[in-house]
Design a protein that fits this description.
Number of strands: 8
Helix content: 25-40%
Length: about 190
């Protein structure tokens, strides 16, 4: 279980949008995001393993937990990236990844995050951005369990692996094109 000690001025955000390897790879590129950890949240099993989460029986979703500087990137901007880098209309599925562990979910850490997440979702529904209903859960954060070490920084360490080449790399490239103004300065 991880209950991070917050550095003054930094905040947390926790998102589930399918495979955490993909989500981690996207958010690692965002200016103002200081740290991204892959893990599990939203379930009933304490200290779950990847194998247990993959069974779909723990109730946990694969998530990323971001530590970010709100002076450099706002929670609203993080929400925009979250909504635009996955399909929030597929229940318990992203691409070929299927099961409740791949659900679309925002775990809010305070009332302001809840308000912003619900407002953004309502705007997408009102503007009929998607042809199907949005199934993204917006739920209070309770606990984050950091995934095993081999899941951390996965894309950067395994970029030549087939899953990275065929699934993650195109998502990262699309993100970089769409969100040029949000990229970390090199």
């Amino acid at each position: 279980m991880t209950n991070p000690i917050q550095t003054e001025g930094l905040e947390l955000a926790t998102f589930g949008s399918g495979c955490f390897w993909c989500t981690e790879a996207v958010f690692q590129n965002v200016e103002g995001v200081e740290k991204v950890e892959s893990g599990y949240s939203g379930g009933k099993v304490k200290n779950p393993t990847y194998k247990e989460v993959c069974s779909g029986l723990t109730g946990h979703a694969e998530v990323i937990q971001l530590t970010y500087d709100p002076k450099k990137v706002t929670y609203d901007e993080l929400l925009e990236i979250f909504w635009k880098t996955h399909d929030p209309t597929t229940l318990n599925r992203q691409g070929n990844d299927e099961g409740p562990q791949y659900r679309s979910v925002i775990f809010y850490h305070n009332d302001e995050q809840k308000r912003l997440a619900e407002s953004y979702k309502a705007k997408l529904i009102q503007e009929q951005i998607y042809d199907r209903p949005i199934v993204t859960e917006i739920t209070p954060f309770s606990v984050f369990y950091k995934a095993e070490d081999y899941h951390q920084n996965y894309y950067n360490l395994n970029g030549n692996a087939p899953y990275c080449s065929y699934v993650i790399q195109p998502k990262v490239e699309k993100f970089k094109k769409v969100f040029k103004d949000k990229l970390k300065k090199e």
